[in-house]
Amino acid sequence: MICNLKMSFYTKVSTVPLIELEKSDYYDTYSKSLMVTVSKYKKVFNEVLRLVSSFSVILSLLMFIFVLDYIIIIMSIFIMIIILMSSNISGKIEYDYYNTNLTHTRYQKYLDEVFYNKRYADELRIYNSSRLFIKRYFQTSNSKIGNMVKFSLKRIIFGFLKLFSNSAHSLVIIFYLSYKVIADGMALGSFTSLLVSSQILIQTMKSVLLAYPNLKKELLFFDDYVDINSVINSGKKKNSCGSYKIGSIDSIELQSVYFSYPDCNEYILKDINQKFIKGEKVAFIGLNGSGKTTLSKIITNQFNPSKGSIRYNNVNSNRISNNNIFSKVSLVSQNFNLYNLSISENISMLEKNECDILKVWDCIKAVGLYEKIKSLSCDIDTVFGKMYDSSGVLFSGGEMQRLAIARALYKDSEIIIFDESSSSLDPIIEEEINKVLLEVSSEKILILITHRLSLMNDMDKILVMRNGSIIESGTHSKLLLNKKDYYTIYNSQLITIENKKTIKSIKSI
To answer: What are the pLDDT digits (tens) for 103-114?
Structure first.
């Protein structure tokens, strides 16, 4: 049951709109929702079970004590009300305390990963940054201690009230029964029966009534689980969540598109008006931070415009299913990922019995990794990485980038986006992969985001961006004749290449 709940949770969070991941409070909601799937569900089930099993015991004891002396029932209920109130408030305090420290706890887990994950190992040593991260851990711990002090008085007060209420009940019942023995001549047998029965009653009632605030506290986490659904649903309202499905994409048109990130007053993209047609090869050029990658996310409907609209085959994006659009996109981003899966699974993103093995090998050949992978003992069944499998394989940065490109080729989508996807490739491999790209994109929309201009002659359109706006548009030859930003960027790169050639020739003398 818990496993199914967690699988359902992962399915839900995989549909959270990408823009929500730009908000820091999303990660707090995620952490609390994850707790529901890991432990809170089981705790709630146990509390409910304890409530049900205790009711029959309470009913029997109430009937027995009522026959002998109903006053004891009244006293027990009064004291239990005090215990319930203090426990209820105490549970809310504990939940608030957890919430206050949640961001600090998440940050400490991140710092744990910095010292654990080999991704950070080189810089940790070369830059001697361990001192900085240890200091950050110490500062975060101090903040958590400060919150503990802040909540400690409330926790002590209500903890003492619970303890006092528990002890007070026994004392009150003993004094009352002693009085009945002395004043009314109650039999010793009745005294003993009532004392024992009242103690069992109060313990069982306490178990039930304490289960209530505990249940209420645990259900607060279920509110957070509901919040993750709210994030998804609100995202669907803000983002395209239609049911319409388009067939082959013939055109994508952006009409007066503006975009800003959450809690940001400045537009990252401004007044973008562009049309992309099937079979067209388009390059986005510009300095870092000019909005190239953000524009690609708008084109693929990962982000929705703050103003303006996107139209696929002249159909507004808010009428189309997100999954329908995503199914038509292949992406190799500058921050690509390879997973602790087999090579074939990393390329196809399918289990081996579901993927086309011949197609996997074709993609491997296309990116120049055939000999490397064929030489492995398990070839495409070899697991990437050694963290969870000692027989796994490690690749160089360029080889990993080629595998990411093979993944995009395998999907064979109608829209192909390469975002600085050749940054780790040597010139010979880059040229070979560029040829493959041009071949496979003849009937597709190819978008190339790059600082390297070797393919510009083959582009049908080059968009030059600055500060979120498209300031130039045209072919390579046309933009060179304009002698504006593209001309400057292109020539500065030519100078860099010529300088490298000169240095190389001097070294060879």
So the answer is: 888 888 888 777
Higher-confidence position of 17 and 356:
356
Burial (Cβ within 10 Å: 0-12, 13-18, ≥19) of residue 486: buried
Element (H, E) at 473: strand 469-474
Domains and CATH numbers, the chain: 2-238 (1.20.1560.10), 251-338+395-508 (3.40.50.300)
> Is residue 452 within 8 Å of 422, Cβ to Cβ?
yes
Sequence-ordered list of residues with C-beta below 8 angstroms from that of 183, at least 6 positions apart, any chain: none
> Which element (helix H / strand E) includes 419?
strand 415-419
What pLDDT digit, counting tens, does each position of 386-421 carry? 877 788 898 888 888 889 889 889 988 899 998 876
- Strands (E) in 187-298, as ranges, are 251-259, 269-277, 281-286
CB 272 within 8 Å of CB 299? no
Residue matched to tokens 């998804």: 232
Calpha distance 206→168 (Å, rounded): 13
What pLDDT is recorded for position 505?
Answer: 45
Averaged over 345-350, what is the pLDDT? 89
DSSP H helices, 14-128, are: 24-35, 41-68, 70-116, 121-126
